Fold each of these.
Amino acid sequence: MLHTQNQVRPTTDTITDTVADTVVASVESVSKSFGDTVALDDLSMQVHAGESLGLLGPNGAGKSTLISLLTGTRRADTGTVTIFGGDPTSPDSRRRLGVTPQATALPVTLRVREVFAFVGAHFGTTQEHLDELAASFDLADLLEKQCGSLSGGQQRRLMVALALVGDPELVILDEPTTGLDVESRDRLWARLRRYRDEGGTLVITSHYLAEIEALASRVLVVDHGRVIADGTVRQITEQVQLRRILLRTTAPEQQLLALPGTVSVTPESESDPHHVVLATRDADATVRALVADGIDFSDLQVHGASLEEAFLALTTHQSPAHAA
Ligand SMILES: Nc1ncnc2c1ncn2[C@@H]1O[C@H](COP(=O)(O)OP(=O)(O)OP(=O)(O)O)[C@@H](O)[C@H]1O
């Protein structure tokens, strides 16, 4: 697969053009309902070769439904979904795809080695590649264990490793690091970054916004079955025009929240309650009011908003402070 990807992305000079030209997955005017519940509402999006796309949205936004259409496990009520220009349910399309669904479903009596061999045989994968994946996902010591005896986190790591066995052109991961400890998460991110850097295309949903920031070149925010924002992390944060003001102050939270433009007040660190972050829609007005109201403060810094603050601002009708 990587050869195909490398062919369409020959040099950094042409990346922008070629990435824009090569659509790996396409969703056009798609709607999907479950009874009275509208999960996807006339949604359109595309995934381009070499892109790493983070899908963000609150619970029930429609992310998993979108993924189920892309991976061919469900069909849209209306609209068109294609991967590699074909039907996502066709074996030809699916052979080029690696998937980790949200729920883990491994055969409980098979050993880890047998599962790797089984999936590897399907794709004609070399033993060397299987060994590399077992090592990268910290599974080498677990090869003789039955899948049913693995911990939740170990099963999760195995599921993500299996998504990469077939050397796929497109990998779709639904919350891949749920339940993983920090070390396992870091390892998994490192291996996914390698996949991405070697030219692979990645679609990932996660509730860890840090994960999206670490892995995604583009972010799609979905809410109520529709795309409400699409861009790089920076574009998304700029879109909501939030600024973060860091400062030290002894002023009470309510007084800070009442400053013009302010939408949330959070401690910068747990150890120092007087070091706070104000998220504001108008940094100038907030700072002016700080001074005018005679609020004591020091060490003031103004930065762009985090993805988390932008996400909350986009997907809640109330302010992040109230949503929290
Ligand atoms: N099989 C189903 N039967 C009935 N309703 C469903 C089914 N699957 C999803 N839904 C509904 O469709 C909507 C979208 O759900 P979906 O699982 O796609 O959201 P999500 O963004 O993946 O949420 P989460 O972050 O909680 O995983 C929700 O209202 C959900 O209750």
Amino acid sequence: MKIAVLPGDGIGPEIVAQAVRVLEVLRTEGLKIEIEAAPLGGAAYDQYGAPYPEFTRKICRAADAVLLGAVGGPQYDTLDRPLRPERGLLGIRKDLGLFANLRPAVLFPELANGSTLKPEVISGLDIMIIRDLTGDIHFGEPRGMRTNDRGEREAFNTMIYTEPEIRRIAHVAFGIAMKRDKKLCSVDKANVLEVSEFWKEIFTDVAREYPQVQLSHMYVDNAAMQLVRNPKQFDVMVTTNLFGDILSDEASMLTGSIGMLASASLNESKKGLYEPSHGSAPDIAGKNVANPLATILSVAMMMRYTFNNIEAADRIENAVKKVLEKGFRTGDIFEPGMQKLSCSGMGNQVVAALG
Ligand SMILES: NC(=O)C1=CN([C@@H]2O[C@H](COP(=O)(O)OP(=O)(O)OC[C@H]3O[C@@H](n4cnc5c(N)ncnc54)[C@H](O)[C@@H]3O)[C@@H](O)[C@H]2O)C=CC1
Ligand SMILES: CC(C)CC(=O)C(=O)O
Ligand SMILES: [Mg+2]
């Protein structure tokens, strides 16, 4: 298992350090794990003058899987756009063809009482959010700023999807729905956007190849509302890059915290990049208080999706469950009566629970 580790910026190095400890436990027990570290984002800009430098690209291309923390920070916000940390993240996603982003919003029952939502609304929650990751307004050209005919400055981005891009994410979504409850909700804004209308047309066409799957369509504004009103109506949701970015952050709060939401970004060959769904959290960086569980659960996804090592994946997820059962919490999921831990303290507990 050749794993590239990219700690990134902000809390990235802190949370990744805990996830690497989990990998080290597996290695000590006999899994052949090779780890190579490289910078991405702001850290890469500082070292190499580019957010996704050749050094990192080579290591990631040679690896079977990539473990990433997060990128970005206010100190980089004034850089020219192509040099910003976030472009490094878009760059690696595009370079490795990581078009299928899986974000499982699963509630550990131990966290049901601490949620801002009523336990009956969220108990048993298990939604798979599938987001296209290499198309949409994030990548569409042209993009930029200009002065229009009236002499006013304006900025523009292009929302665009090709038919093959929609078809391939549709097949991933239907395939996953087939393995679950055979219910797929495609989220769009087809009442306004041509891109969404096309998306809906292609999904309806692909659905003919999966007659056992019940396909529904929902506008994104309604989906955002339904996610907090009655999230358990969803089993698998699939949507575009921008809508998926927003809906998955929203869904993370159904599981207790953005610090709980793992993710896998896969390409056609199951090479994967695994990262928490959150960002670099500059407000808490360097304080050793971030929740490392989303990153640790991303390692479980790596074992499941890239290495097909279901036993290791289950073990990591069970270790997280055990730690939560014992009442250990980081600040973001803390509730009275529980024991508050630091980021590394949570890592210690997960490592102990793996044993
Ligand atoms: N995948 C990535 O690398 C992503 C990077 N970003 C970048 O991260 C930077 C900060 O972005 P924000 O909008 O503030 O989003 P963010 O996700 O970094 O933080 C939002 C809020 O959630 C909290 N939070 C996030 N992760 C946490 C964790 N593991 N434990 C406890 N609390 C946690 C933060 O403290 C903050 O209050 C920006 O530069 C942004 O572009 C944002 C999202 C994804
Ligand atoms: C910073 C963005 C490029 C990434 C993001 O918000 C995400 O992948 O969820
Ligand atoms: Mg996001």
